[in-house]
Amino acid sequence: MQQYQNIIQIAPLFRGIAATDLQSLLSCLNPVYREYAKGALLFQRGEDISALGMVLSGLVHVVEDDFWGNRSILADIGPGDLFGEVYACLPGERLRVSVLAAEKSTALFLDVPRILTTCPTACVFHTQLMRNLLTETARKNLMLTRKLSHMIKRTTRDKLLSYLSSQ
After folding, report:
1. 99 Cβ contact list (under 8 Å, min separation 6)
2. Are the C-beta atoms of residues 79 and 127 closer than 8 Å to each other?
3. Interatomic CA distance for residues 134 and 52, integer angstroms
4. Residue 148 Cα distances to 30, 66, 85, 152, 164, angstroms
5. 102-26-20 Cα angle (round to 5)
6. What is the rounded CA–CA span in Å between residue 163 and residue 167?
């Protein structure tokens, strides 16, 4: 998938990894590329996944459907961004959300156990990949913690003031 090389190189997951090392790393990780039509499910609620996804083209939504059929879009994921990494890092944890293509999209899937197990040669770029995955997971955790700090306020006014004050 040579046409996505630029997206992969600038993606936060591969930050600090040279282009020459990136090819070796990807061949070690055995990536899977898939194309999706608009509305297609990439991951479905209730699944147990072991691969994280990265959008290469298009846009995907992380959605949550409630018992009454209402759908909430929790996140828009664009080119270079990850999805499913938290669930892929927790074996046996079932997805509480679904991921669907908001438009025609292409995604790259990487097996997390392969990411977390270093090669016999203990490549420096593989260690950088693990560091980058941890950084991205921590960044998303911090973002959700900040959002939660606004949402726990008692009134809409307090929520709005909390958000505006942080800005």
Report:
1. 41, 42, 43, 53, 60, 61, 62, 63, 77, 83, 84
2. no
3. 13
4. 37, 19, 20, 6, 14
5. 115
6. 7
The C-alpha atoms of residue 157 and residue 65 are separated, in whole angstroms, by 27
72-92 tens-digit pLDDT: 999 999 999 999 999 999 999
CA atoms within 13 Å, Cβ hemisphere of 12: 18
d(CA 30, CA 39): 27
Q: What is the mean pLDDT of the chain?
A: 92
Query: Which amino acid is located at 1 in the chain?
Result: M
Residue with tokens 């809409």: 156
Residue range 30-79, pLDDT digits in tens:
899 999 999 999 999 999 999 999 999 999 999 999 989 899 999 999 99
β-pairing, 82-83 vs 98-101, is: unpaired
Global pTM reads 0.87
Q: What is the dihedral of CA 110, 113, 117, 123, to 10 degrees?
A: 0
Alpha-carbon distance 15 to 110, whole Å? 16
